[in-house]
Each structure stands twice: as C-alpha cells, then as structure tokens.
Design a protein that fits this description.
Blueprint lengths: L1 H18 L12 E6 L1 E23 L5 E6 L6 E2 L4 E5 L2 H43 L5 H40 L2 E3 L4 E6 L6 E2 L6 E15 L1 H4 L7 E6 L4 E10 L10 E8 L10 E18 L4 E3 L2 E8 L2 E12 L3 E6 L6 E5 L11 E2 L8
Parallel strand pairs: 1-19
Antiparallel strand pairs: 1-18, 2-9, 2-13, 3-5, 3-8, 4-7, 5-6, 7-9, 9-12, 10-11, 10-13, 11-12, 13-17, 14-15, 15-16, 16-17
Helix pairs in contact: 2-3
C-alpha cells in the first residue's frame, strides 16, 4: 500500500512539472520592402489633363432673309466646299423684284442718254446764239432764252443721272436679296446638323445648317495659374484618344492671357491634324502637357509618395527600421516626384511595401542593390 502511494505521488509530480513548461516563442514577422535612393537630377514636368475634342472651325449657317424652304441640298455627314449651296428659299417675289429693278434701271439709263443729248443740243444753241448776240444779230431776249435752256439741260442731266444711280442701287439690292435666298457654306467641312426641311419657314433667327471643319481639330483644356506661365505656344503635346486607342502629337496654338473668373483657370488650345477624319468632335482626350524642367531637383519614385489629408509622406529605412517623414513635393510625373523639403539626397526611400508598414517598424530590404529612382 505504501508503495502504491509513492508511485501515485511521483506521477502527480511529473504531471505538475510538465504543466509548468512554456511553449516556444513565435518568431517576429518582419515585412519585406524595396527601396530606392533619393537622387538629384533634372526633372521634366508633365501636366496630365483631360479635354474634349472640338472642331477647328464651326459655322451655324442661317438665311439672311426669311422665307419658305424650297430645297435642301445636303444631308448630315456630307462634305461641302466653301461657297457651296446648302439650301434654297422660295424666291419668285425676289426674282420679280429683280426684273422690275432691271427695267427701272434700263429706263433711267435711256433717260440719261436723252438728257446728255439735250445738253449737247443746248450747248450748241447757246454757243451759236451767244455769237449772234455779240454781233447784235439777235435780241437779248433770244440770248437769255438760249442761256436758260442750257441751264435747264444741265439740271435735267443731273436729275437723270441721280435717278440712274438710285435705280442701279435698287437693282443691286434686289439682286443681293435674290442671292440671299440661296444659303451657302462659309467654310469647307462636313455637315453636322440640318435643322430645316422643304416647305418649312427659315430665317436669320435660327441656324438652318451646321458645318464643321474636321481636317484639323483642337482640344481645349483649362489649366491652373501655377503652371500657365510654363506652357509655351508651339510646344508638342501627346494626346491620347481613348475610344480610338490612338495617341497623336498635337501643337499648342493658344495660351489664354486671362483666367475664367468663375474657375480661375486659363484656357489652352491644342491643334491636332485629322486628315483621316478619325477624331471627331465630342471625343474625350487625355493630354500630357510639358510645363518646364526643374533643374537639379531631389527626386524619388512617384510610388514612394503617400498622401493623407492633403499632406504627403514617405517612408525611409534607417538601421533596418521604417521611419515616416512628411515631405513637400514639387513637380510629379508618372515616374518621378520632386521633393522640395523633408528629405536629403541618398536617403533610402521605400518604394514597394510602403503602405504596409508603420513608423518605427522593423523592415527587411529585399532589393540587394538598393535601386535608383
């Protein structure tokens, strides 16, 4: 019995001794990161912007006179030349007015010829009578009669010539009015809209046809005041048309001297060659506009920047520990970011894994060569 009690106590002691042992500690996790050294270099700044394609020229064409539409000569999509007839208004009254004006002008012209002949006759009669009067061969009354006839002939010619001028002006007006019944295109391009049909009334109050020139198109964008001075007329701009999957080179043709009072933004226009007509007004374009070069700028990869609540931060690695630093960025491109304050040249900046670490956390740098930005 004593022996059994001893065995039981021994087993209990061993069990209690086993319960007092601690499990092995878990190994601490150290996140892997990749770094790049902050370096000094010249940084070309590119402004990313979005704009809408518009036609280089657009004309809303309306008749100069009111009238009923006789014929419409074009359809949407048609290519038209400058001066080509787009539509014609009923013009019977205008044609009658031209006929009447031509007749009146013809009569006035005949009257001028008659008045000139009458003046010539009066001048000859006056010359002959004056000579006879000097020779006392005719009376003073006959001389004064010849003189009066000459003056009347001169006045008659003046009146006839004035009537001819008025008749010719009326004829010119009638012909212009008739011409206005044919509506022509002021530019070469494509018909974008036709707003009238045969039999409808049309007039100066509304555009009947819209014509756009798409041989060249332009993209208009608005840029902020802090970069407008860096955008130069004639600069080349890469323009991507997403819906076409196409990137073309455009040229800055105008830089607005004044901002929009509502947005405080400045308008910039970029022309694109569009000889094939693929790029159409209304398409969305994304642009990369060069806005200058920052000389000897301290740069880091753009992915190193972290923005929070309007402030920018980077993580550096110091003695195997991540350190958060607030920085002041300058120009930012797709690849690089300029750092104006908060960082020194050569600092090892975390470029991958920087969003998974915290200030003071141990990290493991896995890019052995410590790549450059």
């Amino acid at each position: 019995m004593k022996c059994l009690r001893f065995v039981f106590l021994l087993a209990l002691a061993v069990a209690l001794a086993g319960c007092g042992k601690k499990p092995p500690a878990a190994e601490e996790y150290i996140p892997p990161v990749e770094t790049a050294a902050a370096a000094v270099m010249d940084l070309s700044s590119i402004l990313d912007a979005t704009g809408e394609v518009i036609a280089s020229e657009e004309a809303d064409v309306a008749p100069k006179v009111s009238g009923r539409v006789s014929t419409v000569n074009v359809s949407v999509g048609d290519r038209v030349a400058r001066g080509q007839a787009l539509l014609v208004l009923e013009s019977s009254e205008a044609r009658n007015s031209v006929v009447q004006a031509e007749a009146a002008a013809g009569t006035a012209a005949v009257n001028v010829l008659k008045a000139r002949q009458a003046l010539a006759d009066a001048e000859r009669n006056y010359s002959r009578t004056s000579a006879l009067y000097q020779a006392q061969a005719v009376s003073r009354a006959q001389f004064e009669e010849a003189e009066s006839a000459l003056n009347n002939a001169r006045l008659g010619l003046q009146l006839a010539e004035e009537q001819l001028r008025q008749a010719e002006a009326a004829l010119t007006g009638a012909r212009e009015n008739l011409a206005n019944h044919t509506v022509t295109s002021p530019i070469a391009g494509h018909v974008a809209a036709v707003n009238v049909h045969g039999g409808e009334m049309a007039g100066p109050q509304g555009a009947a046809v819209t014509v756009v020139n798409m041989d060249t198109v332009k993209v208009k964008v608005n840029v902020s005041e802090n970069v407008i001075s860096s955008i130069q007329k004639g600069s080349q701009v890469q323009v991507s048309i997403g819906v076409l999957g196409k990137t073309v080179t455009g040229t800055v043709v105008s830089v607005g001297p004044k901002s929009d009072p509502a947005t405080r933004a400045f308008p910039v226009e970029i022309f694109l060659d569009n000889a094939q007509g693929e790029i159409r007004p209304g398409m969305v374009a994304t642009l990369k506009i060069p806005v200058g070069t920052a000389k000897a700028a301290l740069t880091v990869p753009a992915g190193a920047l972290i923005e929070r609540d309007g402030a920018y931060y980077v993580f550096t690695v110091e003695d195997g520990v991540a350190r958060e630093k607030q920085v002041k960025p300058g120009a930012i491109t797709d690849q690089l970011a300029e750092i104006k304050e908060g960082l020194s040249e050569g600092a090892a900046v975390i470029v991958k894994g920087n969003r998974l670490v915290a200030d003071g956390q141990k990290v493991k740098v896995v890019n052995a060569e410590g790549g450059q930005p």
